[in-house]
Amino acid sequence: MQWIVIVVILVVVIAFIALTVKVVPQQRVGVVERLGKFNRLLNPGLNILIPVIDQVRIYHDLRIQQANVPPQTVITKDNVQVQIDSIIFYQVVNPEQATYGISDYVYGVRNISTATMRQIIGKLELDETLSGREKISNEIRIALDEATEKWGVRIERVEVIDIQPPTDIQEAMDKQMKAERNKRAIVLEAEAAKQDMILRAEGDKQSKILKAEGDKEARIREAEGLRQAQELEALGQAKAIEAVAAAEKQRIELIRSAGLDETVLAYRSFEALEEVAKGPANKVFIPSNAVETLGSLGAVGELFKEKKA
Asked: Quick check: 93 pLDDT over 60?
């Protein structure tokens, strides 16, 4: 009997402790109600409650959560049905408002997202819808932010995952895309051929210009070289003439300094003529005045006298 009492007491103590002590993990928070009325929040760590009187209504995860929005069929401005799949990232920033502001904020976020998406797509044509994912996502996020502000929920991001048009539209778009790619390929090929021809012509032009400039430069250099050669040759001749003149001048001065007069020079000339006259076929004609001049010299005069006799 005593053991039963002890067991009951232990059970009561354990239940009392379980109802009194609450350990909340990080990034979670609990909403405490006292006698059915909001009392306080349980923050991460150890928390003490009054058993029976205090009750934890709900725990909220404060991390960023994601909610998949089921694929929605919407109609564009040009009456094309498209199926849109999206996902929403949100975070609870006010646990009290998230508990008492709306019964199920995830459900509310999905519904507002769907309604907003229909309104946005209804204003866009198919091409704008397919190319405007970022615009659609931003407008849905702005609409959700305005609605969920009083729910204690903040919308972090909205992503439009897929926009799927009807099969026939998809096939027509594929054909159009294929035709556009073929057209682009043909245009690019023609453009490449055009660029190739332009580059080749430009290269040929540059080559001819460079060749002409090279020939011109070569002729200029050749003419310049010839001119310099002629100048150097003329300069050399002028210097040679100057040297000959200087030597002749020096020789004349040396003759003058040696005291040689016209008579000696005439005699020296006669000696030279005598050597010339020794040849068998040579005849020398001497002017009479020269003979008189030479005859006035002693030995030379005798020589001419003998020849006259």
From this structure: yes
**pLDDT digits over 247-275, tens only?**
988 888 887 787 766 666 666 666 766 66
Per DSSP, the three-state class of 123 is coil
Q: What angle do CA 53, 57, 61 make, to 5 degrees?
A: 140
Residues 6+ apart with CB under 8 A from 73: 81, 82, 83
What is the spatial distance between Cα 115 and Cα 135, in angstroms, rounded to a whole number? 16
The tokens describing 170, both together, are 């998809």
Torsion on CA atoms 44, 50, 55, 56, rounded to nearest 10:
0
* Pair of tokens at residue 175: 């054909």
- Compute the mean pLDDT over every residue in the chain, rounded to the nearest whole number: 85
Report the distance separating Cα 147 and Cα 102, nearest Å: 11
Angle between the N-to-C axes of helices 298-308 and 288-295, in degrees from 0 to 180, rounded to the nearest 10 = 130
